[in-house]
Design goal:
Low-confidence stretches: 5-10
Number of helices: 4
Number of domains: 1
Number of strands: 6
Strand order of the largest sheet: 2-3-1-4-5-6
Strand content: 25-35%
Helix content: 10-25%
Largest sheet: 6 strands, antiparallel
Length: 150
């Protein structure tokens, strides 16, 4: 017996516009203490890092599952910064977190770089999945334990 699939249930959410991306960042700003940029390709974050070279950051290599990805990424490069307004300005200069639906490929000048926002205790309060053009926060339930905020 076949069952009809309701397309509305399985529809992909609309891609957040630049204004929606700005609003999302602004809403999380009061709780944001650290920003982590996760580059799947080490050189992907170069345009951002060039703009932020004067800010101290902590570099790590390798990311476990979570924050929108269901599998570990052992070669991903993570740059963690304390919150600074210059980081938000740099994101704006690079065209935002990811391109809007109408443009292809999904990248802005930021490239294939995911963002994790952390509070003062180090808990993830928001994350992006750039290649999927997705914003994740505590109100978002991806339905997959490995994709939840960590």
């Amino acid at each position: 017996m076949s069952r009809a699939v309701d397309p509305a249930v399985h529809a992909r959410p609309a891609v957040p516009t630049r204004d929606a991306q700005r609003a999302w960042l602004a809403a999380l700003r009061p709780r944001t203490a650290q920003l982590e940029f996760v580059a799947n390709d080490e050189s992907a974050a170069d345009p951002l890092l060039a703009r932020l070279a004067h800010l101290p950051s902590i570099l790590t290599v390798g990311v476990g599952p979570g924050n929108g990805c269901s599998r570990p990424r052992p070669t991903a490069v993570v740059h963690r910064f304390a919150y600074d307004r210059e980081i938000l300005r740099a994101l704006e200069e690079l065209g935002g977190l990811f391109a809007e639906e109408s443009s292809a490929p999904p990248w802005t000048e930021l490239g294939d770089v995911d963002l994790v926002l952390r509070d003062a205790q180090g808990r993830a309060i928001g994350a992006t999945v750039a290649h999927e053009r997705m914003l994740i926060d505590e109100d978002h339930d991806p339905g997959d334990e490995n994709s939840r905020l960590r």
